[in-house]
Amino acid sequence: xxxxxxxxxxxxxxxxxxxxxxxxxxxxxxxxxxxxxxxxxxxxxxxxxxxxxxxxxxxxxxxxxxxxxxxxxxxxxxxxxxxxxxxxxxxxxxxxxxxxxxxxxxxxxxxxxxxxxxxxxxxxxxxxxxxxxxxxxxxxxxxxxxxxxxxxxxxxxxxxxxxxxxxxxxxxxxxxxxxxxxxxxxxxxxxxxxxxxxxxxxxxxxxxxxxxxxxxxxxxxxxxxxxxxxxxxxxxxxxxxxxxxxxxxxxxxxxxxxxxxxxxxxxxxxxxxxxxxxxxxxxxxxxxxxxxxxxxxxxxxxxxxxxxxxxxxxxxxxxxxxxxxxxxxxxxxxxxxxxxxxxxxxxxxxxxxxxxxxxxxxxxxxxxxxxxxxxxxxxxxxxxxxxxxxxxxxxxxxxxxxxxxxxxxxxxxxxxxxxxxxxxxxxxxxxxxxxxxxxxxxxxxxxxxxxxxxxxxxxxxxxxxxxxxxxxxxxxxxxxxxxxxxxxxxxxxxxxxxxxxxxxxxxxxxxxxxxxxxxxxxxxxxxxxxxxxxxxxxxxxxxxxxxxxxxxxxxxxxxxxxxxxxxxxxxxxxxxxxxxxxxxxxxxxxxxxxxxxxxxxxxxxxxxxxxxxxxxxxxxxxxxxxxxxxxxxxxxxxxxxxxxxxxxxxxxxxxxxxxxxxxxxx
Length: 666
Description:
The chain is an alpha/beta fold. It folds into two domains: 73-382, 3-Layer(aba) Sandwich (Rossmann fold); 407-664, Rossmann fold. Helices cover 34% and strands 20% of the residues. The protein has 21 helices and 21 strands. The strands form three sheets. The chain has a ten-stranded mixed sheet with strand order 1-13-14-15-17-16-18-19-20-21, with helices on both faces. Strand 2 (73-80) and strand 3 (83-93) form a beta hairpin. Helix 19 (605-613) packs parallel to helix 20. The longest helix is centred in the last third of the chain and has 20 residues, at 527-546. The two termini are 35 Å apart.
């Protein structure tokens, strides 16, 4: 086969593989990941900016929700030598309450640095006090004595924050989330990330806290929360995730969300702290056993790119999974040096843990009257998302540009698809046909493999080239080309070139794929999202090969839905004709059954795509009554483009007249 790289020199790695890596490499929480290489500071910063939005989108926080009043309740003050401790209850969402404890220095003059400290999956949560493994009160008390204001708060389902069950994989009550909720990016990880952001809001609102000196630390699941909030919230000035930054274990349960680790993993998230000071504490007896040889050098390489290698440190201790006294003292010393100007090691002092009733904010009390059930909370988030989507609707030309930018961002981070540049697309020529050739397409370094066929007319004209997408793929395109009444034959007869593809898991691209791995969508795109990506890759190939000023994209049967979303991310100069296959666009189950992409409904679904599809000529047919036709019409009117929508199916002759109207035929 002949290999070529579009608009760039061929390199050894730029080839179409013999098997599509999306079928053969199915990462999960226990995959051994490798840190990608970044050639420059700019390359890393671009990736980090993308990852920030990927984290937020997977958490249901893109765009960030309104920060409603926290209505902080701080009470039950206990005074001890060198520190005080109080109970805290915050309303992080209307009707959702986060419990915690606030530890402050006593008899010292502030303002002080502030520390948020999520706890992890210890049996007693923020109240865990195990002398050999972990003590959350010990670190809070000691940090307060050293001169920090410390807010220790619950994970969902623990202690005071028990409106919903935690919902880990162990047998027990189901927690927040599920297939339907995945469409709206509603999950425990997202709620906990929001709680961490709001915890910083609370801490920085205190008059005795210096908002420019905020730190975060936690171990295990608390470390996951630490590096995730540090990745998305620049107010975290110093961070110390303990025993969780690993290339061989990524966490589970509340540490997961669909799309979170697609083309990403925890070491990349931790590196997003750069250039801010970061301490990585590891243990020989858990999944951070390789840190000195693997994870730390990977993170260190990012700090080196940013000229901040002096700001990252790592130490490994010979213990099983922990946040014990020795680990805590490493963090005390690091925080003291970075936030208090300390110069030597800081040792832990003896401490006294209060009785549970003196630390629990809801001991002997019930939740406030407006506390939401998990079902009501889910309904609130969906209603909130629907209001946000409605605000995207462009009703004038002046609103259109911003609406398109917002819709493109939302859909990009739901589908996790990007139209490649010509230099990223590779192709291999296969069998020569009487009027064209078979091809294989892919993206350099991505490992995807897209069977395709390129057909050229006997007599060419100025007719735009057409990408045809059908569920039966290349076989259907070739059959249609041989049929005197076929759509492809008609396009060729009117002087237009045609590209057909076997989109992911269709036609000859069908192959075994293990979709049953736990947390599959946390690490892998769905089949439907991969099909959208393949269409975008094929469009780049088509446009670059033809050099035409515009191109046509035609989606038939369920392929129409794939093309509808691909066109949204394809940029200008793409005319779309798509069969909407009677898709009921306002029904969650329809997305689960026919076009499953996590976060798609939260992103604006068919409505957001309508704003982008109206950039050029648009024909939508076989639409269901629920289809948001007004979005298409208003967007096209604002853009001054042509949009035609009808409920009936379209035949080959109608599609041909749309593709090549009589006035433009030659």
